[in-house]
Design a protein that fits this description.
Helix 9 crosses helix 14. It contains 15 helices and 35 strands. It has 5 domains: about 190 residues, P-loop containing nucleotide triphosphate hydrolases (Rossmann fold, 3-Layer(aba) Sandwich), CATH 3.40.50.300; about 90 residues, Elongation Factor Tu (Ef-tu), domain 3 (Beta Barrel), CATH 2.40.30.10; about 80 residues, Alpha-Beta Plaits; about 90 residues, Alpha-Beta Plaits, CATH 3.30.70; about 110 residues, Beta Barrel (OB fold (Dihydrolipoamide Acetyltransferase, E2P)). Strand 11 and strand 12 form a beta hairpin. Belongs to the TRAFAC class translation factor GTPase superfamily. Classic translation factor GTPase family. BipA subfamily.
């Protein structure tokens, strides 16, 4: 059977996973009466809740005698480690672009990786049936994007289709019949080249491992594309590291191939196909699985280095151990090492005391997803403020810079530009009208300046602005950048918060807690209206007497507290603060719970 291996790449929320749903339906993957779910490729709970793709996943469909292996890639740059590995398995890419928004920053990130590998793109202009769609403008922007990314003549001569993934049609012309996705299937089989590996069937078996997972019955399993040869169940293979060192020799216990949404056991793996192999105990991502006669590993694609680091520690607050079962540093370390093994974009380092671990990665969203997964597994953690990773070049200190693309209503452009270029020390690159009363702003801003900015940005734009960011490069260190302007309200007592006390504290600032929430000394319960920290008593009840007086029995009416998500809490805290994460709660607290130590640290900082 002919094989085509393609990856679908797009910006967050441009309809990538919805399009794959329709491809599965129209290729006959489902039975007529089979129960299906929306966004079937988003199998992870967090992916379904947030509507984003986090893990790269494979599926396979058949079209007129050709098997098409489709890889659904994450759209967010924080999960770029998935993208960089997965693109080495495919021979072509389908670039999905929203006809109204055009190519966005996450599109640029994945597309640059695909073009650098020499892959020829197919552009699909999605959502052309929306009232604000401008497919011709979006197509021109795609060409400009490819040219800016250094595409060659073969890649610039790309075919394009007009489509609506939700409605399930794609056509070569904008006013086409709009019936089904057959035009997309035919274009993929015609435009994407068959795997070059098909000509290597007579050579010894070689495969580069690109994703790692585990199965309760099969143990450790590795997925990749067969580069050469054939493999049968029961054959003996060896694993080579990137440097050519032998890791282990093992017997293949099972071979799985993607068929529809699931995987099925097969007897023989052919060159060019994407398969999963079980039987190894030590081999991991970027290792070469090969015949014992092979000594040279397959070159692995280099992974971009991490840009931020976060310290994971044990939860040592007075409320520790009430919600979660996994609280020891040893258990936390084992879980982080397991994550680093399968996620090549994350690096783990031990701190000198051994009670905390420095986790380096791509961005706040990637860290937030890791922490969210751990808290759902029963872990309790304390998380520090993200720190940008700096590096030295020719004796000069360099820091990472991100390209920020913002779509905002015209009336808010002034405050956004002022914050980015003045307070956050960014450089304005482009500002142009985006139609319908909106302005598009492109700026290069130091990563340090963007930590904690998103919440401020939503406040400044009344929740209407859209901010996207992507790693751009390195620049000379730009000096100190102002952090959070407001101080915090800190509890000075242990116990349960009282509504009357919170009511009296409302004039001091915004609250983060509800009445009857447990609090402890050093816990942050709100944001101060001024720039200094203030210790307050949220347990102070109303003094009662046996004398009734007019006007003293008014009802307590509280303003609803600010409920922060995990990412918002991590971005909000200052250097001397921590986020306490448990399966049931996200709390903020001072790093030093002892009041005398807090005051000493405050004096030292001032």
């Amino acid at each position: 059977m002919d094989i085509r291996n393609i990856a679908i790449i797009a910006h967050v929320d441009h309809g990538k996973t919805t399009l794959v749903d329709e491809l599965l339906k129209q290729s006959g993957t489902y039975r007529e009466n089979q129960q299906t779910t929306e966004r079937a490729m988003d199998s992870n709970d967090i992916e379904r809740e947030r509507g984003i793709t986090i893990l790269a996943k494979c599926t396979s469909v058949e079209w007129k005698g050709t098997r098409v292996n489709i890889v659904d890639t994450p759209g967010h740059a924080d999960f770029g480690g998935e993208v960089e590995r997965i693109l080495s398995m495919v021979d072509g890419v389908v670039l999905l672009v929203d006809a109204a928004e055009g190519p966005m920053p996450q599109t640029k990130f994945v597309t640059s990786k695909a073009l650098a590998l020499g892959l020829r793109p197919i552009v699909v202009l999605n959502k052309v049936d929306k009232p604000d769609a401008e497919p011709d403008r979006a197509l021109d922007e795609c060409f400009d994007l490819f040219a800016n990314l250094g595409a060659d003549d073969r890649q610039l001569d790309f075919p394009h289709l007009y489509a609506s993934g939700r409605s399930g049609w794609a056509d070569e012309e904008l006013d086409g019949p709009r019936k089904d996705l057959s035009a997309l299937f035919d274009l993929v089989t015609r435009h994407v080249e068959p795997p070059k590996q098909l000509t290597n069937a007579d050579q010894p078996f070689r495969m580069l491992a690109t994703t790692l997972s585990s199965d309760p019955f099969m143990g450790r399993i590795l997925t990749g594309r067969v580069e050469s040869g054939r493999l049968s169940t029961g054959d003996t293979l060896k694993a080579l590291s990137r440097k050519g060192e032998r890791i282990e020799q093992f017997r293949v216990s099972k071979i799985l191939a993607f068929r529809g949404l699931g995987q099925q056991p097969i007897d023989v793996a052919e060159a060019g196909d994407i398969v999963t192999i079980a039987g190894m105990t030590k081999a991991t991502v970027a290792d070469t699985l090969c015949d014992p006669s092979v000594d040279i590993p397959i070159p692995a694609q280099p992974i971009d280095p991490p840009t931020i680091s976060v310290t994971f520690g044990i939860n040592d607050s007075p409320l520790a151990g009430r919600d979660g079962k996994k609280v020891q540093s040893r258990v936390i370390r084992e879980r982080l090492m397991k994550e680093a093994e399968s996620n090549v974009a994350i690096k783990i380092e031990d701190t000198p005391g051994g009670e905390a671990f420095v986790v380096s990665g791509r961005g706040e969203l990637q860290m937030g997803v890791l922490i969210e997964n751990m808290r759902r597994e029963g872990f309790e953690l304390s998380i520090s403020r993200p720190q940008v990773i700096l590096r030295e070049e020719n004796g000069q200190r360099m820091e990472p810079v991100e390209e920020v693309t913002i779509d905002v209503d015209d009336e808010f452009t002034g405050v956004v530009v002022e914050k980015l270029t003045g307070v956050r020390k960014g450089d304005l690159i482009e500002m142009k009208a985006a139609g319908q009363g909106k302005t598009r702003i492109v700026a290069h801003v130091p990563s340090r300046g963007l930590i904690g900015y998103h919440g401020e940005f939503l406040t400044d734009t009344r929740g209407t602005g859209v901010l996207n960011r992507i790693f751009h490069g390195w620049t000379a260190h730009k000096g100190p950048i102002q952090g959070r302007r407001q101080g915090v309200l800190i509890s000075m007592e242990n116990g349960t918060a009282v509504a009357y006390a919170l009511w009296n504290l409302e004039e001091r600032g915004k609250m983060f807690i509800n009445p009857q929430d447990p609090v402890y000394e050093g816990m942050i319960i709100g944001e101060h209206s001024r720039d200094n920290d203030l210790e307050v008593n949220p347990l102070k009840g109303k003094k009662l007497t046996n004398v009734r007086a007019s006007g003293t029995d008014e009802a307590v009416r509280l303003t609803p507290p600010v409920q922060m998500s995990l990412e918002q809490a991590i971005a909000y805290i200052d250097d001397d603060e921590l986020v306490e994460v448990t399966p049931n709660a996200v709390r903020l607290r001072k790093r030093f719970l002892d009041p005398h130590e807090r005051k000493r640290q405050a004096r030292a900082a001032s």
